[in-house]
Amino acid sequence: MTETTPHTPTPKFPHLKADFTASLVVFLVALPLCVGVAVASGVPAELGLITGIVGGIVTGLMRGSSLQVSGPAAGLTVLVYEAVREFGLPVLGVIVLATGLLQIAMGALKVGRYFRAISVSVVEGMLAGIGLVLIAGQMYSVLDSKAPESGIGKIAGLPGAFLDALGSTSALASLALGAGTVAVLVFWKYLPPKARVIPGPLAAVGLAMLAAFVFDAPVTMVEVNGLLGSIQPPPLDAFGELASVGVLGTLVAFTLIASAESLFSAAAVDRMHDGPRTSYDKELLAQGAGNAVCGVLGALPMTAVIVRSSANVQAGAKTKASRVMHGVWLLLFAALLPALLAFIPIPALAGVLVHAGAKLVPVRALVQLWRDHRGEALILVVTAVSIVAVSMFEGVLIGLALSVVKTAWEASHIKLEIIDKGAGPVQAHLSGNATFLKLPKILDSLEALPQDRPVELNLTGLHHLDHACRTALENWAERHSSAETEPVKVTSA
Fold it and tell me: Which residues form a coiled coil (predicted)?
């Protein structure tokens, strides 16, 4: 009689322990960031928590990228602040709702995969521009001062703000807390692993809260309105603002930037783990559903956030359960402990966002890009500077336009070979791609050919000849031909 080995049943939730632990880590990372992004965006702190809750529970339950975590993003702070200042909080809800519906439509139409075609330099330039404006704007909160409206004004006014702070006790206290918060975030990664069990952002804000309490620092604290009191669905009359050109432009900017940032983040997260790869169209649907819910609740827009997502992967998450549970922890905190928010110093949150903004500026990548691909580096810099100097939407459009022009220019590889044997016709062979971008060079070379000799123009080597080039070549051939010489003989493919 043979003995049978007893079969060990497979656990129903084999990754529950790992996902539970990861969810706590992500919650602790997300909490100060949700509040900080909301305050920097000029809206009640609770709205940042609401977006984090929706990003965890609603978007987290949907398919797309299994380990990516969504919530309010530092990358949209500048745009949200401008939208609230110009159109008001009710219209922000309309814009966020419309953004979500557009993302759902794009996901259903399978547009998500095409976002991978956007130049990485444009996206990095966009994030760099956002980072610079974010740093400059939040420095005024660190200095307990009011920030100018424009990006250039924010940067230009910083020296004066620093000088003014030297004569104010409250400003110096605020600066000390903000600088201390940034210092903790910078040096946190150098501490022993046991100390780093607490995420850096939470530790930095917690230490700032402790310092403000112990020294009774005269600094501004977060205002608390209560979770339910902060939920303000947009009224019906606010939807009429969608007919405004300014609102439509902001809507397009929200949609493009939120979608691009989420999908590029998904690509980065995929490189961090060996689990299932991202389905870009499904991820766009998930982001759209989350933004639609946020819009209905009058909350902030969401994107996938690389800081939380990387924390999720590094904490050992295996399934999407970790991000859903992080949303539950945010909900429990907002419902049971909202009064704790009133003890958070504003300069500490500003310090967290200054640090986050600095991470958006890819200094090392730019140096490497300048060595290897100067054209791409130029696009990155011009996009970033345009965002600072003009606005977010126009800056991204300028970057995209430059990227298209650069690609078209590089695609216009054209070679003109002249064969002149001293007697008989001059032979001109064109090969490559003849586009309007290289037209001046082609015409300069052809017009330099001898006027008293017959010319044979061979176009069989061309892969592409656009309408502008064809018309220009025909006009040149007509001008070159005269009664004294034979007409230009053109051989085409």
Answer: none
Give the least confident one: 50-64, 90-104, 230-244, 421-435. Answer: 421-435
To the nearest whole percent, how much of the chain has pLDDT over 90?
31
Is the separation of the CB atoms in 56 and 328 below 8 Å?
yes
65-93 pLDDT, tens digit each: 888 999 998 778 888 998 999 999 999 99
Q: Which of 57, 34, 56, 29 is nearest to 45 (CA)?
A: 34
Q: How far apart are CA 68 and CA 284, in angstroms?
A: 12
pLDDT of residue 56: 94
Residue the block writes with tokens 């064109």:
430
Return the closest-CA partner of residue 376 out of 350, 415, 405. 405
Give the CA distances from residue 101 to residues 48, 56, 116, 254, in Å, rounded to whole numbers and listed in that order. 20, 19, 21, 12
pLDDT digits (tens, 9 = 90+) for 272-286: 778 788 888 999 999
The whole-angstrom separation of Cα 72 and Cα 286 is 15
Element (H, E) at 170: helix 169-187
The answer to whether 295 and 95 have CB atoms below 8 angstroms apart is yes
Instruction: Determine the longest span between alpha carbons in the chain, in angstroms.
Output: 111
Tokens, residue 183: 């210092």
Q: Is 286 helix (H, G, I), strand (E, B) or coil?
A: helix
